[in-house]
Every structure is written in C-alpha cells, then in structure tokens.
Design a protein that fits this description.
Blueprint lengths: L9 H8 L6 E4 L2 E4 L5 H18 L5 E4 L3 E5 L2 E3 L3 E4 L10 E2 L2 E7 L5 H5 L1 H6 L7 E5 L6 E6 L5 E5 L5 E4 L4 E4 H4 L10
Parallel strand pairs: 4-7, 8-9
Antiparallel strand pairs: 1-2, 1-5, 3-6, 4-5, 6-8, 9-10, 10-11, 12-13
Length: 188
C-alpha cells in the first residue's frame, strides 16, 4: 500500500508505516525516512539500554529502544533512540507511546543538527518529558536538557564527567559503560 498523493493523516501514515520494512517519522503530513545507523551509534544505544534495564527493575518504569514510536501530538510521530516511560497507558500499549519521561538521542553526523534543534523542539511539546539526552559517540559529548520546576529547559553538560546522571529516573551510569566498545574519534 502506498501513501496517498495528498499529505496523509496520522492514521493513514500509521497504517502505511506499519507495513514498511524501514522506519519513518511523521510531522504535519510529511514523511521522513530514518537513515541507517553506524556501529558506534548502535553500540551506545545498546550499552545504555542494557545499563538502564537493571536500574529500572522493580520500578513502574521501562526503557524502550529505537523501534518504538512516540506520538508527540495529533500530527507527529518520532522514533527516539531510547526512552523511558512510567506511564500506565504507555506500559499497556503495543505500538504507540505518548508519555516518555526521558528521551535519548545518539547523534550521527547526518542527524545531529535535527536532533539538537527541530526534534528537540517537537519533544518539548510532551508534558511528560523531564529530560532530553544527547550523546555523540564520535566526540563523546554528553548533554542533558532537564525541565526545571518553572518549566524551563536547562543544559547540563556531562561531557567530562565520569558518570552520566539521569535525574528524571534517578540513575547513574558510568561513562565507561556508555562508551564501552566505541573507539574515541581520532584527533584532527
């Protein structure tokens, strides 16, 4: 089944996208193919996911990886690299999540400008979101944006920290574990 010639609705997009081998994001009737990930990207995603699983055990929260859809609004569906939700409805859904507490994007040269700007602006529309984490496997830059009590987003640069602190879920992860198996980028 192909997409309609006119801009599809959210329901039309979901019906179409569920039959595709590749993943696509959707915003205001526009469909965007997801690019393939590099080894370093996949390694960081798996490392962090594996570290979060035991830290969330016994809590009402779960971590999900890049194949799960997050609906931002009636006109937007995105695929975060990782996210954590504690929402009861999210924990019952099979396909579309709506209330992540933490979203993690692992940057690549092709997507980092989008992840830092437009995608972050879209995620900020989620009332549930408390923390947005950007990890660059090439430079090992790690930045967390956290929503404070006034609703403002504050940058916490953890690039040189030995431990990644995720305030939204009260978890610490050693940076060595986040980057295990990822070679640092060569100096220019």
């Amino acid at each position: 089944m192909g997409l309609p010639a006119a801009k599809p609705t959210l329901d039309e997009f979901i019906a179409w996208e569920n039959g595709q081998a590749e993943r696509h994001e959707f915003h205001r009737g526009e469909v965007f193919a997801m690019v393939g990930a590099r080894r370093s990207h996949g390694t960081v995603v798996m490392n962090l996911g594996a570290q979060l699983l035991p830290r969330l055990k016994g809590s009402p929260c779960r971590v999900f990886s890049e194949s799960m859809k997050v609906q931002i609004s009636d006109d937007t569906i995105l695929y975060p690299d990782l996210f954590v939700t504690c929402d009861r409805e999210d924990l019952r859904t099979e396909m579309i999540f709506r209330a992540p507490l933490l979203v993690v994007e692992v940057l690549s040269p092709a997507t980092q400008a989008y992840d830092r700007s437009r995608k972050f602006a879209l995620y900020r529309r989620l009332p549930s979101l408390r923390e947005y984490l950007l990890i660059d496997p090439d430079t090992r830059d790690v930045q967390a944006f956290r929503r404070n009590a006034a609703g403002e987003w504050v940058l916490h640069d953890m690039t040189d920290a030995p431990v990644l602190y995720l305030a939204s879920i009260g978890a610490d992860v050693a940076m060595a574990d986040v980057f295990d198996g990822v070679e640092p980028a060569a100096e220019a």
